[in-house]
Design goal:
By secondary structure, this protein is an all-beta fold. About 0% of the residues lie in helices and about 50% in strands. The strands form seven sheets. A five-stranded mixed sheet has the order 4-10-9-6-7, with no helix packed on it. It has a five-stranded mixed sheet with strand order 12-18-17-14-15, with no helix packed on it. A four-stranded antiparallel sheet has the order 22-21-24-25, with no helix packed on it.
């Protein structure tokens, strides 16, 4: 190969396979300089290396936190790191990614080719997962008809609270049950948190029973003479109203008790002893109750 000098330098470019070579150079001389003997030098052509890219990152990060990771390479030019197509720039060799949206992602790192190394790329998948929500229901297991009581809700996200399927408002973590809300029976409280952009769903259940009250009914009267009117007095707690059946021997009388008091007047009773049985009839608030006396 003949190569011309340019400003005292001759450059010859050739692509060679890997191996060891001996280059010999001759100067043919000109009008000013004599030819030279050959000058030789040995050199090697080696293959380019493939750089190794290492991504040191966690495979999971909780939402609203930051993924902190490092990326290193054994060679190549222009190390570039992206997540979801967004370029991530390191600070002091450390990369930081704000995990604000749940989902699956990948860190992709690339290096460009240079004289010694081929281009290369590496990726590592990671997941941004949602917060685990928490909700807890606290309620006493038994109550009486007419009681007012609270159901306590502890939660870290918006919860919907139902009692036997009916939705109740939660105010400052409390569902207030008043005297008119529920009749006697078995109830299930369910508090549910629906999945959102930040939280997973969760729920909790507790149950309670509302019992009827057993009233204390009292009947009293005084002995009378034949021809007098028998006065039978029935008393109960002051908040009781309802139907009372008064049985005098084999005859029934119906009396309405109000505010805990009722009076039955019976005329034309003949001479003798009478058994008086008083039965307060069960209703939606009270169980049945019975008392007896004689006249």
């Amino acid at each position: 190969h003949t190569v011309a000098f340019d400003n005292h330098v001759a450059v010859f470019n050739i692509a060679l396979p890997t191996g060891t070579y001996d280059a010999k150079v001759y100067y043919l001389g000109d009008y000013r300089y004599n030819p030279t003997e050959n000058v030789s030098t040995e050199f090697k052509v080696i293959s380019k290396l493939t750089p190794v890219i290492t991504i040191d990152a966690s495979v999971k990060v909780e939402i609203q936190n930051k993924l902190v990771f490092t990326v290193t390479t054994t060679g190549g030019n222009n190390l570039t790191v992206r997540i979801g197509g967004v370029l991530i720039t390191p600070e002091n060799g450390v990369y930081t990614y704000g995990a604000d949206v749940a989902g699956s992602y990948a860190i992709t790192a690339t290096v460009d080719e240079n004289d010694d190394y081929y281009a290369a790329s590496e990726s590592k998948a990671f997941e941004v997962y949602k917060h685990q929500s928490h909700v807890n229901v606290t309620v006493e297991s038994s109550h009486n008809v007419g009681d007012s009581f609270d159901i306590i809700i502890n939660n870290d996200s918006i919860a919907v609270v139902t009692v036997n399927g009916k939705v109740y408002d939660v105010v400052n973590g409390v569902v207030n049950i008043t005297t008119s809300d529920l009749s006697a029976g078995y109830y299930v409280v369910r508090a549910s948190i629906s999945e959102s952009d930040l939280f997973l769903s969760s729920s909790d259940e507790k149950s309670f029973t509302i019992f009827k009250l057993t009233p204390h009914i009292t009947v009293n009267t005084t002995d009378i003479h034949v021809g007098d009117t028998a006065i039978i007095n029935i008393t109960a707690p002051s908040d009781i109203s309802g139907i009372v059946v008064v049985r005098i021997n084999d005859t029934n009388y119906t009396v309405y008790i109000q505010n805990g008091n009722a009076t039955l007047e019976v005329e034309k009773l003949g001479n003798g002893t009478y058994n008086i049985n008083v039965t307060y009839l069960e209703n939606n608030r009270y169980y049945s109750s019975v008392d007896n006396t004689t006249l």
